[in-house]
């Protein structure tokens, strides 16, 4: 948990002109420690709080200027926000840094107050450092404060001076070396002074870094190539100081075969880290190597082209590219059989079945249409691969596409349905005719006066923007024509009507709700059903409730306004854009009682004895009938209609003793509450019966012979007594034998 330090001090007393409006801070100064959390209180009374204003900081080497910013309750920034408690508008600063120091201003609508924040020095670095030879680098001290401290540096016991190559960041104490030279290595000391505080820092600086090459694919890197494709090997340097020199060689041994474009024009180095072979040939199957080296050492990475393959070549043959319907058409895709290819046909991007067979050193994938139809037309693509890979080591997929256009007369894609609307409909009404055929037919739509109302290629769409007169109603003729033939079809724009009544309306009731189901009207009036309207009526036809139900639903439940043992009527009607249809009304009599709620089994033990008492709580809802009985059902888990189980009914109490359970078996127990309306939902629990201990429990009784004699039944009791004694001795004998 973060510790939040609240700046507490004596409140400055400021004398203002006679006014109740004030902006007050506890102190004019504050000292913060870096990395911690602080809150600066600001009490604004008698006026509106406006904002906290942060200090601006000038730019310094490597760090841009920090502008002053306004912080409001609605607009926090970075690690700063406003916490408002009453008149107190606290400035919350998280993880304080030296850049947080400076003059802060708490601003009200007419007054303001300021506080100067000083930031104490942090711990800084005392660990060994590495700097990179020949590069710009930093000896990091990272000790900062506000106001900035002073830094006194020495190296190997000698005072350190600064110049254009070696500069000091006066805000952090860091030394910037540009470039790093070998003599920069040594033992560095810095004394940091902040006020009366003095903090020494000592650490060594090293200059040497050995080159290291990234090897995510291991060493060596083995690749396959394909004739005519390019391949690129990379020698990525992770580290190395001074900067390593990269050299490429043919072979894994020696340095007498450097890779140079003078030896082969297909060799190139897009960068010093890359080696590219353009247009791979069989002779490029070889071993290669890169070496990264500097004064500190070297690293190498080996490469090998293990195989140079040939990408598959596709030859497509078509018996007819523009056949007529009924023609016999074959499409063949021929691919060299070595190396063994994978060949597949696709139609319009979807996999299409074919037959494959060898022929003259090639694999042939054939599609056959013995009686081709217009629907068989489309774009057919043959795709082949044989394991050859590209420069990114991805398998090469070669493909060729052919268009099959089946010449056919115009045909209806689907018979058009009559269209319905009504006068006054504000929605657009569309009449559409669609035809297939090749060449694509020209389609014209005419009304019953012979006027062309729409036309297009393959289809004709007539959009009526709102129907306010009856001039559009009537019959429309769609005619499609191409050079092979003609096709006509008729459809009508008819007047829509209100829907008929819903069918098979059925109600089911309880004491507190009415469930209603129905079926869609046989005739929807020509327009889609938009919704159903359900009405709840009293027995005297007074409307108690009215609700809309989505057209996709065929059932609903009414719970509000429902009372037990009351006669109601329920009506349902369908609605479309033409209006509301007639309703179907049915009677609904609610019941006096509802089934009770679920009891709650209270036993908490995980294991039970073979004889135990099941207990439960009475349900919170008795369904209106407080004369509740219980039904207890138990059996080995799980209880089904086929499994053997026991049932005890009409139990008046909330407990029931169950005996003779089988040791080691898991049982399922169910408890239902029942009343005059029936049985409610059961509560179900599972318990494991403890294993048998091998001990016997024998119940003994004392017999009062005098009392029994007075009752006149002494002889049967005496006989029963001797029988129990004999049974007891028999059980003792069994226990002895079992041992």
From TrEMBL:
PROSITE patterns: FN3, IG_LIKE. GO terms for biological process: axon guidance; dendrite self-avoidance; homophilic cell adhesion via plasma membrane adhesion molecules. The keyword Transcription regulation does not apply. GO terms for molecular function: cell-cell adhesion mediator activity. Keywords: Immunoglobulin domain, Repeat, Signal. Pfam families: fn3 (PF00041), I-set (PF07679), Ig_3 (PF13927). Residues 17-122, 147-195, 204-306, 312-399, 410-496 form the Ig-like domain. Residues 1-21 form the signal peptide. GO terms for cellular component: axon; plasma membrane. This is Neural cell adhesion molecule 1.
